[in-house]
Amino acid sequence: EMVDTRGCNGAPDMIIEILSQNNSKHDLVTKYNLYEEAGVREYWIVFPEEKTIQKFELENNKFVFKGFFAQDGIINTQLLPNLNIQLEDIFY
């Protein structure tokens, strides 16, 4: 079971990282490598000031860059195929 009385077991299927001024480039690289190694299937990095998202999907145990999505675009996830998120609804 993924969740039990002790908490979460194993890696989540998806991580959405919302950057702040405190995030360093080193921090991002470390997390990227950690999430890739753990087998996180999808990883989004949100840049709130720029109103953009970078999307990565795990393929053959390696993250593959799947796109750079801007404020007026639409982003979706392979994990929930019918979910389409209008970024203008998030970055208003």
Order of helices and strands: EEEHEEEEEH
Number of helices: 2
Low-pLDDT residue intervals, each spanning 5 or more residues: none
Count the strands?
8
Molecular structure report:
This protein is of the alpha+beta class and 92 residues long. It contains two helices and eight strands. The chain has helices spanning 25-38, 87-90, and strands at residues 3-4, 7-8, 14-18, 42-47, 52-59, 62-70, 74-77, 80-86. The strands form three sheets. A four-stranded mixed β-sheet has the order 3-4-5-6. The protein has a two-stranded antiparallel ribbon with strand order 1-2. It has a two-stranded antiparallel ribbon with strand order 7-8. It is globular and about 40 Å long. 8% of the residues are buried. The mean pLDDT is 91.
Give a quick set of tags describing it.
alpha+beta; 20% helix
Question: Nutshell version of this structure?
Answer:
With 92 residues, the chain is α+β, with helices and mostly antiparallel strands. It is built from 2 helices and 8 strands.
Lay out the secondary structure.
Layout: E1 3-4, E2 7-8, E3 14-18, H1 25-38, E4 42-47, E5 52-59, E6 62-70, E7 74-77, E8 80-86, H2 87-90
Parallel strand pairs: 3-4
Antiparallel strand pairs: 1-2, 4-5, 5-6, 7-8
